[in-house]
Each structure stands twice: as structure tokens, then as C-alpha cells.
Model the fold of this input.
Amino acid sequence: MLTQAPRGTKDVLPAESYRWQYLESKMRAAAALAGYREVRTPVFEHTELFLRGVGDTTDIVQKEMYTFKDKGDRSITLKPEGTAGAVRCFLEHNLYADALPCKMFYLNAPIFRYENPQSGRLREHHQFGLECFGAKEATADAELILLAYHLLHDLGVSNLSVEINSIGCPRCRPVYHRRLKEFLGGRVDSMCETCRERFERNPLRVLDCKEKKCQELTKDAPSMLDLLCDECRAHFDQLQQCLTQAGIPYRVNSRIVRGLDYYTKTVFELVTETNEGKLTVCGGGRYDNLVAQIGEQDIPAVGFGMGLERVLMLLDAEGVEIPKTNPYEIFVTYMGENRLHAFDLVQRMRRAGIRADLDHCGRSLKAQFKYANKTGVPLTAVIGDEEAAGGNVKIKNMASGEEATVSVQDACETVRTMIGQERE
Done:
């Protein structure tokens, strides 16, 4: 067990970390274009934050949280989602006193849920999330949807579409709850155990059930869209106008309710078709009451979360080639007792911004070249007795076989030139 990662977790190996770095760079760039700045919140929070924010009728709170008592007998929970922590941060540091909207994003943020590991979703997985505080107009909702859509499309995810819904607000949702409970009343005994509990506490969550028998029982359920108040209707209409104007494929799906209790008005998912059916790549929505629910500030907000593992899995399925970078641009080899000369040259090159290395294992010159070939490094350098005596180094292009003997002082400039030619 000491040499095996816990079930539902996965190591990112040095040979594959470039994939994550590439994805993260694209996500950072997309967020920056829309004025979102990075926030980093703790991996764990007080359990009460999630009980109050996420909702005690959700599967997350009821079944999936990693909760424990610390040495001060305080209940602590590893983050099961990112929004509640972002709200806590927004309130604790009085960010509402700054110019609004406050736009923040988190990246490669670990999320912990005790559930059966599934396709692109582990017990510890990582999210890219955006949160926008202080914007009440549907243009903010549309901005986030478009940001996610264009990011995924540009990365190479195909068959991508947007599904949207409105689940109303505290003014119009109670009417729908009553109508839904009237519809479900005669079907309760046929529901799964979880939905029987949901029926009493939050009937809207019954629509989110993944059990086929519950989906069949609710297929003709009334739609929240028919009971929206004027404000929610206008907001949803404005969202659709924005998406239509942007020209992206979307459809209204009244079955989307998302799995968290804090959503109001807009909820959305970005989905793609796979060999195994539809897969949700990104999900989010508006949570206008959450800030007031956690603190005392009545501030509207909207956001989304996107799993990095799931995006990488989709890129693999699409056959998208992520550019791979070699850890080195040059590998310095040496003969005999010229190790210190090689070491000095490597330091010179690193200070000049060139990725360089030398043998640290005491290999023969032949073995050093064999290792260099294995890494795929484009250039090698050789320092033998003759080169050391003359203050020179021999640099070789591994692909073309071209060689140049230059002084140690000119080596960095020569390497830059050869690297540039190699890239062309």
C-alpha cells in the first residue's frame, strides 16, 4: 500500500505534465481576455460553509464529502467544489467594497468527492473555475458560456453544444415546487430511495436523478420555464438573445437543474457526443443568493466549473496532439576529467535562458550520447581534452549532423542561432 496511490487518485508523471501545462496556459489566456484574475483558496474549509452553501439535500453533502475533525475538534472538509470557497474569500477580504463586478478564476484546484471513480472524474480531480460577483445582467452569464465554449472549441473538442435552462428564483420557484410535488405525488413509491428523500426536501432535485426508472417517471413533469416570474423570464430571454447573436449552437433543456442547491435563474452545461453518449464537459449557472446566504451582502453572482482531467480525456479521444516540449535544448557531454568544464558551460547556458544539462551519473562518452539520443534533445555539446585546452566546445545538431567548434564565450549565442534554425 505504501507504493500505491489511494483509489480514485492519480499521479501526473513528469513525462506527461506538459499536457497539463499546455491546457492550463490556454485556460489562463482565456480568463485573462475577459478580465478574470486568479484566486487561490485553501484545499480545506470549515464544514459549515458547504452545509450552508452547497445544500444538505445534495449528493455532495449527503454522501461525498471528505469530512474530519482536526486537533482542535473543529469539523473540516476537503473542498468538494470551488464556488463556496470563492464566496467565503470574497466576503472575508471585503472584495465587495472594490469596483464590481469582481472577476476571479481558479485553476488546477483540487476537488475531493467520495464517489465511484468515473470517466474523467476521480475522487481527487482538478477544476478550472470562473466566478463573477456583482453582475446581475444575463450578459455576464452569456460571457461565461461563450468563454467556455470557445476555449473548448479552440482546444479541439468537437460535437460541442450548449444546453441552458432557468430554474427561477425564490419568488417563482415555490409555485413550481408545489406543481411538481402534485405531479410526483402518486409516483413517490416507485422512485429510488434518494428521490423519495428529495421529494420532501427539494423536489427539483428529483429531475436530476440518473436512475432510468426515475427519469421515466418524470419525463412528463411540468417545466419551470412555464412558471417563471417576469424578472426571470426577461433574464432568460436576454441570455438567449446573447447566445443567438454569438452564433453558437445551444438548446433549451428544461431537465437541467445541476447538482447544487445554490443555483438560481440560469443553469447551463456544455456537452459533447462521445462513443458512450453525451458527456458534460463544463457546468455552471447563476447563484444570486449564495453570497447573502453565507454572509450578509446581497450580491448577485454567476460562475462555472470545468474538470481538467475530463478535458484531457476528450482531447485524447479526439486525437488532438498537444505540443510536446523537450526538457533540454542542449545536452553537454564531456570526456575524461572535463566534468567541471561541462558543469560551468551548463550554468552559463542556464543563466542565458537555455535549457541545458550534463551527465550526473558518471557515464562514458558513448553512454552520454546514448542518453542524449533517448531524450530527443536537438543539440549536444562535447568538451574533450582538446576543446578544454583551447577554451572551446564542439556543438552538434543531432538531426542534421552539422557541427561547429566555437569558444565557450560564444557558445550561448551559437546555441540560440542553431535552436532558431531547428525551429524553422
Observations:
- The chain has a mean pLDDT of 92.
